[in-house]
Write a structure and sequence with these properties.
HTH_MarR-typ; 62% helix; single chain; WH-like_DNA-bd_sf; 6 helices; 147 residues
Length: 147
């Protein structure tokens, strides 16, 4: 690793943590006080039309049992509901309710507010360069599936 990149892992992890913490605090301030950041990663997977518990488990890299427990919790809290799967009569689709969609909209606004100070310091060229650099590290669809 180049000497000038030696502190990059700590900086990237710190930045990711600051982003998660900022979004979480803002979402809570918007009234969604009964959620944890892990729920946001589940919402990201469910927001594109739903997913099965198995899909959710794969996305979150947890067991199917843990994904089912999370789904039950989110159903109890009114963020998620079960629907018949359109192509598999044995499966159930987990989909966001209106409350769940409202929370994802609040999280999108929170992300924009959290990133605003960084955006204010970057020129358009610097922002594009940062995006290109991070694209080399990121796996497309890992956090939010590509639709």
């Amino acid at each position: 690793m180049h000497d000038d990149l030696r502190d990059l892992p700590v900086l990237l992890l710190s930045a990711a943590r600051a982003l998660v913490d900022g979004i979480d605090a803002d979402v809570r301030a918007s009234g969604f006080t009964d959620l944890r950041p892990a729920h946001g990663f589940a919402f990201a997977r469910l927001s594109g039309g739903g997913a099965t518990a198995t899909d959710l488990a794969e996305h979150l890299e947890i067991t199917k049992q843990a994904a089912s427990q999370m789904a039950e919790e989110l159903i109890r809290k009114g963020y998620v509901e079960r629907r018949p799967h359109p192509t598999d009569a044995r499966a159930r689709l987990l989909v966001l309710t209106e409350k769940g969609h409202a929370c994802t909209r609040a999280a999108d606004r929170a992300a924009a507010r959290t990133l605003a100070p960084l955006a204010a310091t970057l020129t358009p060229g610097e922002a594009a360069a940062l995006r290109r650099a991070l694209t080399h590290l990121a796996t497309p669809g890992r956090i939010r599936p590509l639709w």
